[in-house]
Amino acid sequence: MKNWRLVIFGLVLTLAAVFAAGYFFGSYRTSKLLESQILIGDKYRVVRTPGGMLQVATLIKQESLAWQTSWTCPVSLCNFLPTSNSQISVEAQYTYRIPLSEYWVLEKISESPLRYKLKVPRLEPQLPVTVNLPTIRIQNSGTVFSPSGPTQQKMQTFLQPELETRSKSAAYLQIVRSDAEKTIKEFAQKWLRDGDVKIPVGAEIEVVL
Questions:
Q1: Residue 79 DSSP SS3
Q2: Sheet (strand 44-48) strand order
Q3: Strands 53-69 and 103-110, how do they pair?
Q4: If DSSP states are collapsed to H, E and C, what string results for 24-70?
Q5: Are 82 and 149 in contact (CB under 8 A)?
Q6: What is the mean pLDDT of residues 33-42?
Q7: Whole-number Å distance between alpha carbons of 55 and 163
Q8: 195 SS3 class
């Protein structure tokens, strides 16, 4: 009988020791896991977007293309002959957009003042470039001995590819960058104000294109 009591007493001590070890060590591991989740959740905010394309900036610019046409002769015999100059000018409207991925990630970069960094896809021009047709102007200059320059139809054919090339140039992208960042920032702030995930009032958002 005494042996059974000793066995039962030993089992109780063993269970108590296991429980105590699990309580203390398990509590420690759980607290570290929760702490890690809080830090991640505090530093990054994942925001759902409506998808599609977001128009962020528009550049309206008067553009012109010019050609010089000269006679072609062997051994530069035509260098003294007159040339003709042709130019087409038009008002072009460049519209820039960014694709809205399914989610945006806001990264906290400063606590005081509270600031988040939002990295978004690079700007994309909407193609083809919009042309204000009534503003098209054609100019030709030369003498009666000058060669004929390109026709109006040919100049207009050259126009659109050139406008598309300009729309993707670093110079044009730099012109609209500031306005694009402001538009994205306003959109993000409104979306965070009306959406499910919110950031504190007064928090700044730094847009990185």
A1: coil
A2: 44-48, 103-110, 115-119, 204-208
A3: unpaired
A4: HHHHHHHHHHHHHHHHHHHHEEEEECCCCEEEEEEEEEEEEEEEEEC
A5: no
A6: 40
A7: 19
A8: coil
Residue where the block lists tokens 């960058």: 177
> Residue 173 and residue 70: Cα distance in Å, rounded?
35
Give the pair of three-digit tokens for residue 196: 């499910």
The structure tokens 């820039």 sit at 96
85: which residues sit within 8 A by CB, 6+ positions away? 66, 67, 68, 69, 139, 140, 141, 142, 149
Contact between residue 90 and residue 129 where contact means Cβ atoms under 8 Å apart: no
pLDDT for residue 197: 62
pTM: 0.70
Q: How far apart are CA 167 and CA 165, in angstroms?
A: 5
